């Protein structure tokens, strides 16, 4: 099994960390996947450098195995991050567009209604990233944060994105690029240390975030603490719920008026998280303050009906 790390020359926030990472010892040229995609090998890590947009490159893990005979255990993408706030940031997140209907076109890759398996490294690497960024002098200028589940491309193995944001000024930031490269180097154990975030456990708790904004602040408050594992993070926009018509009971989750893709989004995100953490206990954590009463009641009833445990912050430690 090999680990794919993927970057694109079309993105300065992707090729910057790539160049820093490939300048570290131990790399050798690998096979070309296809025209425009070259590879490099270091232990069980395969680094793919391509020319196209990352979010359009579906099934890279399956294509790599078909071309080389090497099964892929996980995929890590390097990319830029954009935000209205323009605040400098280093972010980590799972991917998918579970809230989109079949007749909708994903604006940034993926497949409608689909999520990737979340990479188990997301929680441990968020904490390692914060430590490295602090040591590199990026904190407090840079925010170190999770993002909610969003965008593509389609993958078939546990996946995460590492991003530098949030404007062109920072996409090419040299110290930020070096920080992401160090995260990869240390996190994958390429320097001879122990890899960080490898899931080989049973009965440990895994957070499934439901509700909140794109940067999942209330889920972040839990995940930033040592020992917490995290799967998918569904912000409010990934839980489209049609408000019940006037006169109907907003407390009844079985009411046909509460339509939308929210149930599907929760179900596929739960299943993907469970698949990524075999033997783990997946616990839903709700951002109660972000949900209206009828939304919370509907979600709680749905989780209960599907035997998905709902946890409080203290349940994850």
Low-confidence region ranges:
250-256
The side-by-side strand order for the widest beta sheet comes to: 2-3-4-1-5-8-6-7
Query: Total strand count, please?
Result: 12
Radius of gyration in whole Å, from Cα? 19 Å
Oligomeric description of these chains = single chain
Residue share in β-strands: 15-25%
- Series of secondary-structure elements, N-terminal to C-terminal: EHEEEHEEHEEHHEHEHEHE
For the largest beta-sheet, the strand count, sense and barrel status come to: 8 strands, mixed
Alpha-carbon distance between the termini? 31 Å
Judging from the principal axes of the Cα atoms, what is the shape?
Answer: globular
Q: Provide the structure class.
A: alpha/beta
How many helix segments? 8
List keywords for this structure.
317 residues; 8 helices; alpha/beta; 22% strand; single chain; 12 strands
Q: Can you give a write-up of this model?
A:
With 317 residues, the protein is of the alpha/beta class. Helices cover 27% and strands 22% of the residues. An 8-stranded mixed beta sheet has the order 2-3-4-1-5-8-6-7. The protein has a 4-stranded parallel beta sheet with strand order 10-9-11-12. The radius of gyration is 19 Å and the shape is globular. The two termini are 31 Å apart. The model is unreliable at 250-256 (pLDDT under 50).
